[in-house]
Amino acid sequence: MPLSPEQQAEIDAQRQSPSQTLRVVSPGMEKHLYTAHDVLDHGFVRVIDYMGDDAAICQAARVSYGKGTKSVTNDEGLIRYLMRHWHSTPFEMCEIKLHVKLPVFVARQWIRHRTANVNEYSARYSILDREFYIPAREHVAAQSTVNNQGRGELLGDAEAARVLEILKADAGRAYDNYEAMISQDGQQGLARELARMNLPANIYTQWYWKVDLHNLFHFLRLRADPHAQYEIRVYAEAIAAVVSDWVPFAYRAFEDYRMGGATLSATALDCVRRMVKGETVTQENSGMSKGEWREFEGVLRG
């Protein structure tokens, strides 16, 4: 189960004890506080705390008192201007703290985003739960033949069944040995900090992850992208749904200019101008490599 009974009881108690505050709150975010959103087979994402909203971004941009501007229209227009012109500092005034439960191999991808504050569950102090990520049948695929870091075609039924059985058996056997090494039933047992090295990368860990909105948008741009690995992408998508409720103006601008937009090199932009003038532009006369041209065509095709 994603949440333990103890965690669920703690969440229920927190939700039943609201506190009054004079600080800015986001109605869209308030509904997410302490609510766990399930991800994968045993994982979740839940909001622990947050600071700021759309108005706080505008307030910081203008270094003003109270609300950002006189009208909602002006606030949204300002946020779109900031996003369009890469003025990132005002977005750093908003922060979010998340509690995430995720497989270790996903955590190792995630931690490459070094612009956050992280505190992970300690396997030196505590014993990890017997919970492993086992991919669903529809996500068991072969190595891509065109992308060295991606998946290709789905495995056939027999091969997928064989692989899934290996994953389950190896995970269970590794955990059995982990328990045996730290057993306290009449034996001294191995230190937890050493016993954990026997565990597979698909075991679940947990952490608190606190990040400002500017760096969170960078995380989402990379990890919510269709080309990102599925297992981290579903976490990014769950977070994106929360962010869209928290700062709707900022998120819409992010979707438009970052997720849905494209950055063109000076060479590519020159090609577009030539095309608009009616010139036939090919890879051979574009000044681009084959790889650059292929990506350029992908942008134009959409």
UniProtKB/TrEMBL annotation:
Top-level division of the source organism's lineage: Bacteria
Residue numbers spanned by region Disordered: 1-20
Bound cofactor: record note: Binds 4 FAD per tetramer. Each FAD binding site is formed by three monomers.
Catalytic residue positions: R223 (involved in ionization of n3 of dump, leading to its activation)
Catalytic reaction annotation: dUMP + (6R)-5,10-methylene-5,6,7,8-tetrahydrofolate + NADPH + H(+) = dTMP + (6S)-5,6,7,8-tetrahydrofolate + NADP(+)
Pathway it works in: Pyrimidine metabolism; dTTP biosynthesis
Listed cofactors: FAD
Annotated binding of FAD, by residue: T89, R112, H113, R114, E120, D212, L213, H214, H218
Positions that bind dUMP: Q109, W110, I111, R112, E120, Y121, S122, A123, R124, R196, R223
Entry similarity comment: Belongs to the thymidylate synthase ThyX family.
Self-association and partners: Homotetramer.
Protein's name according to its UniProt entry: Flavin-dependent thymidylate synthase
Organism, as annotated: Sinisalibacter aestuarii
Source organism phylogeny: Bacteria, Pseudomonadati, Pseudomonadota, Alphaproteobacteria, Rhodobacterales
